[in-house]
Structures are given as C-alpha cells and as structure tokens.
Design a protein that fits this description.
The chain has 65 residues and is an alpha+beta fold. It is built from 1 helix and 5 strands; from the N terminus they run αβββββ. The two termini are 16 Å apart.
C-alpha cells in the first residue's frame, strides 16, 4: 500500500483509498498532496476539498490510471 501511495503522489494520479472508520468502510478518491510520516497521515484533495487520512485507518489502496 505504501508503494501505491508513493507512486500516485509522484505521478500526480488519482487514487482510491479504503479506510476503516467508526466501524465502517469509507472510500476516498483524489490525489495525494503530501505525506507526514511523523504524524502518520497523508493529505488528499478531490474536486471539492482537501482532507487528511490517518495511515493506520487505511485498509486498501488502488491507483486509478
């Protein structure tokens, strides 16, 4: 998963991230803007907003090329 996130960030392509939050799966689509390993988070943006995802909540990653 880490490699897919790095590839998406370097190529500036869309990515789909599946997270486990509050007992349910949530899907996030967009581009990875940056990652902060000390905080264990990544920032993504879609056409409407930017948002932060905790790395510990990520269960699956798909690069959308």
């Amino acid at each position: 998963m880490k490699e897919d996130i790095e590839i998406a960030m370097k190529r500036s392509v869309d990515i789909e991230i599946k997270t486990w939050e509050d007992g349910q799966f949530t899907f996030h689509n967009g581009k990875v803007i940056w990652g902060d390993l000390s905080r264990r988070t990544i920032e993504m943006e879609d056409v409407f907003k930017s948002f932060v995802i905790k790395l510990d909540e990520i269960v699956d990653v798909t690069v959308l090329e």
